[in-house]
Specification:
Blueprint (H helix, E strand, L loop, with lengths): L11 H23 L8 E6 L9 H6 L3 E6 L4 E5 L3 E8 L2 E8 L3 E6 L4 E4 L34 E3 L7
Parallel strand pairs: 7-8
Antiparallel strand pairs: 1-2, 1-6, 3-4, 4-5, 6-7
């Protein structure tokens, strides 16, 4: 009897990643429908700037050539959520910009108000992400972590495929 797990012919990791990205879409869709964020909720969304379908202004692409984190909190507008992507208006250094991001490009979603986070693995063909500055859109009020929690509601999904 072998201790090795047989290779799956069903792409479970991709199915789970797609389902969790749909959580991001549903949350953003509810914000779009209600016209704002409830309570103290706010979102940090990190995405690959060069992923297919991403559309951001040239000056942001130059500043964030690989990955970018945006904040959805106080000043955002025209949030539009589609089945496979979202677009939002944000201000960067006083310059209004519209970003279009497919959910497949999202690598992290975090709501610090309740310490909820999702992390998605990037395409294995890509190089490791380099350190980058946080986006400077809508200066966010610093969120205080008063939960004292252990992060137990943070979900990280990182499946490894056997080749």
């Amino acid at each position: 009897m072998s201790d090795e797990t047989p290779e799956s012919l069903i792409p479970y990791d991709e199915i789970v990643q797609d389902a969790l990205r749909a959580v991001v879409g549903r949350v953003l869709g509810e914000v779009e429908a209600t016209g704002g964020l409830p309570g103290e909720h706010h979102f940090y969304i990190t995405f690959k700037t060069r992923a297919p379908g991403v559309s951001i202004p040239k000056h942001l692409m130059e500043r964030f050539p690989d990955e970018m984190t945006i904040v959805i909190q106080h000043r955002f507008w025209d949030l539009k959520v589609e089945e496979d992507s979202f677009s939002v208006g944000l201000s960067f250094g006083g310059v209004a910009s519209t970003l279009h991001v497919p959910f497949a490009a999202v690598t992290q979603f975090h709501d610090p108000a309740v310490e909820f986070a999702l992390t998605f693995h990037a395409d294995s063909a890509e190089a490791p992400a380099e350190e980058h500055e946080q986006a400077e859109n809508d200066p966010a009020m610093e969120a205080k972590d008063e939960s004292g929690g252990d992060g137990s509601n943070v979900v990280s999904v990182d499946f490894t495929r056997k080749k």
